[in-house]
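[step 3/7] fold_predict: job queued, chain A
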Amino acid sequence: MRRHTLGIMLGVCCQLVFLSGCFFGWHGHEHEEHHEEEPEHHERPERRDDRRHSELLNIGKTAPGFAAIDARGERVNLADYAGKKNVALIFYVKDNTPGCTRQLCAVRDNYSGFVGKDVEVLGVNPDDAKSHEEFAAENRLPFPLVVDKEMTIAKAYGCEGENGRVERTVYGIDKEGRIVFAERGSPKPEEILGAFEMND
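[step 4/7] structure written:
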């Protein structure tokens, strides 16, 4: 009888322990905060974009005036050509580089065509007069190379490229001072001259 009573009491105690565990466990989960780990965001250092987004001047626009010296130290003023000659402005990156040499020599080889259309060719970049003089002599360039040391002319014509270098560009300017040709890169001499033919 005593053993039977003890067995009943033990059974009751076990059930109470089980029920209390379920109760507190359920409430504990109810109030438990779930902290989900947020993915790490590694901030990338801000990238500085040095590329200048210069735009070509529009055809029909009046060409910005400028005055500078050439390889021989002579003054070159755009206003002096007004009413007298057309002008081809060739902005190139640097003297004595393969690409620029090819570009200017192509103009040299077709120079008679420019003369026939009353076009004065002017090469322009930031190199100094001595560099221009040597470059012109070595390649027998028959046209002036203008010194644009501070890139004043290049900036006025939207030719300031990446990292402050000249962006290769060619402009054609008629005798009235209006832009009739504007193109990046190294357009063929025939393309440049074609713009003046259409303007005749």
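[step 5/7] annotate
The mean pLDDT is 82.
The CA atoms of residues 66 and 78 lie 6 Å apart.
exit 0
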